[in-house]
Amino acid sequence: MDRFRAIVDVHVLLLRPPEQVLLIRRANTGYRDGQWHLPSGHLEPGETVVEGAIREAREEVGVVIAAAALRFVHVMHRSPDRIGLFFAAGEWAGEPYNAEPHKCSAIGWHPLAELPADTVDYPAAALAAIGRAEPFAVFGWR
């Protein structure tokens, strides 16, 4: 029998007062285009999850986050084969901007308690769990 293998993705919560999170509107990717999501992406071979989170934030919204500024806040096991690791940062270098206009149509700050209705379902669920201080969740299982 083959061993289970998961795809790991990393998600970055850029947070600013009062209780706002930066979201990006996906475009031209073939996955949830037109919906809001956190800066995120798949872990690349040979990189740690911290390196992946730093890379995704830089690639998608142009900010530089020091490893020490990242705080692990949540893990989500999504059906059938995804493990999502969520990291929060309250400080970074640079002003966020749309660094991937070919994959993102907009960026915007949103209240954590009032996410847009068209936020991708699983990061919305993760943000709600993080708000309840729940470090772990499953999503999409029966």
Features:
alpha+beta, about 15% helix, about 35% strand
Short characterization:
With 142 residues, this protein is α+β, with helices and mostly antiparallel strands. Helices cover 17% and strands 36% of the residues. It has helices at 49-61, 121-131; strands spanning 7-16, 20-26, 36-37, 40-42, 70-78, 82-89, 104-111, 136-139.
As a whole number of angstroms, the C-alpha radius of gyration is 14 Å
| Residue windows where pLDDT falls under 50 for at least 5 positions | none
Number of helices: 2
| Backbone shape | globular
Report the sheet with the most strands, covering strand number, pairing sense and barrel closure: 8 strands, mixed
Structure, explained:
This protein has 142 residues and is α+β, with helices and mostly antiparallel strands. The chain has helices at 49-61, 121-131, and strands spanning 7-16, 20-26, 36-37, 40-42, 70-78, 82-89, 104-111, 136-139.
Task: Write the SSE topology.
Blueprint: E1 7-16, E2 20-26, E3 36-37, E4 40-42, H1 49-61, E5 70-78, E6 82-89, E7 104-111, H2 121-131, E8 136-139
Parallel strand pairs: 1-6, 5-8
Antiparallel strand pairs: 1-2, 1-4, 2-3, 2-7, 5-6
